[in-house]
């Protein structure tokens, strides 16, 4: 039986530090690496990132959209990369931002099942259909020791338009955070809960109460979107289990594996500083 995702993440962060590196093979990055914008290019890009970083960073976060662009052969490259990354000791957070009615959500969450061709440790999900619609994913995560990261206060400039909307006394973002807090509380004690939220490192101020969340906070928006390690220190209490995630600002250093490792190490140093 796989240990719960939260416990596995806590162990990985202790051993390797909190940095998550996103695998986002943009067409422009592939070109910069001298690779074709097709399935072979994706496979070579993914293998290079995995080979350089899966032995040292806690979490790798492949972005599904870049693989879907190239159909079944793109997805095959991702399946291979996910398996290789996990075999090398990294946790894999599949960034798919899934969200749908219960029966469909159940199918989306199947990617957390061991034996799935793209079996991942955790999945990003969108709460737009209502937090209750995510329940099948919560159930699947619990059954298989998987994790979920729910979009709460995202890093894009327009995010507040919906996420600041009020539901009674609370913002939509706060309702999402409170829902995730409830899932972790149901699971009880542990070093860290398996259910996290996404809160961008780009926020002008932290406008959600994360106290007692009991799970991790994925913080994107570093580097290319303007967020910095200082922003993380400004926004988050030291008690918050922040998992900072960087894609382009590390990937642009490739394809040389030593340069990729050095770029990730620079972020790790800034985060530790
Ligand atoms: O869930 C995410 O990972 C995510 C949430 C969010 O609020 N903002 C955000 O940028 N992301 C993802 O994080 C990555 C950011 O990439 P860079 O801006 O290149 O570091 C992309 O894959 C985005 O899809």
Report what the structure shows.
The structure is a single chain. The chain is an alpha/beta fold. It has one domain: Aldolase class I (TIM Barrel, Alpha-Beta Barrel), CATH 3.20.20.70. It has 12 helices and 10 strands. The strands form 2 sheets. An 8-stranded parallel barrel has the order 1-2-3-4-5-8-9-10, surrounded by 7 helices. A two-stranded antiparallel ribbon has the order 6-7. It starts with a helix and ends with a helix. 48% of the residues are buried. The model has no long low-confidence stretch (mean pLDDT 97). The chain binds orotidine-5'-monophosphate. Orotidine-5'-monophosphate binds at residues 22, 24, 63, 95, 124, 154-155, 198, 200, 220-221, 223-225, 245-249.
Descriptors:
10 strands, TIM Barrel, 273 residues, 12 helices, alpha/beta, globular, OMPdeCOase_dom, OMPdecase_type-2, binds orotidine-5'-monophosphate, two-stranded antiparallel ribbon, eight-stranded parallel beta barrel, orotidine-5'-phosphate decarboxylase activity
């Amino acid at each position: 039986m796989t240990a719960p995702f939260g416990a596995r993440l806590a162990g990985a962060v202790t051993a390797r530090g909190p940095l998550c590196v996103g695998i986002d093979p943009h067409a422009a990055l592939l070109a910069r690496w001298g690779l074709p914008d097709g399935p072979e290019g994706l496979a070579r890009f993914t293998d290079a990132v995995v080979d350089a970083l899966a032995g040292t960073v806690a979490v790798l976060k492949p972005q599904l959209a870049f693989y879907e662009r190239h159909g079944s052969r793109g997805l095959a490259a991702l399946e291979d990369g996910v398996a290789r990354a996990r075999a090398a000791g990294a946790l894999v957070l599949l960034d798919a931002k899934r969200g749908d009615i219960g029966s469909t959500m159940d199918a989306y969450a199947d990617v957390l099942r061991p034996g799935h061709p793209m079996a991942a440790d955790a999945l990003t999900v969108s709460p737009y259909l209502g937090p209750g619609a995510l329940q099948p994913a919560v159930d699947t995560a619990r059954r298989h020791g998987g994790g979920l990261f729910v979009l709460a206060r995202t890093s894009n400039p327009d995010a507040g338009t919906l996420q600041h909307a009020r539901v009674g006394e609370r913002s939509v973002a706060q309702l999402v955070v409170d829902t995730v807090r409830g899932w972790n509380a149901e699971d009880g004690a542990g070093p860290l809960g398996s259910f996290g939220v996404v809160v961008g490192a780009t926020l002008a101020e932290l406008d959600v109460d994360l106290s007692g969340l009991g799970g991790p906070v994925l913080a994107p928006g570093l580097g290319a979107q303007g967020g910095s390690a200082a922003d993380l220190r400004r926004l988050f209490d030291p008690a918050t289990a922040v998992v900072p995630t960087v894609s382009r600002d590390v990937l642009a250093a490739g394809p040389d594996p030593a340069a990729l490792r050095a770029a990730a190490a620079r972020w790790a140093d800034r985060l530790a500083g």
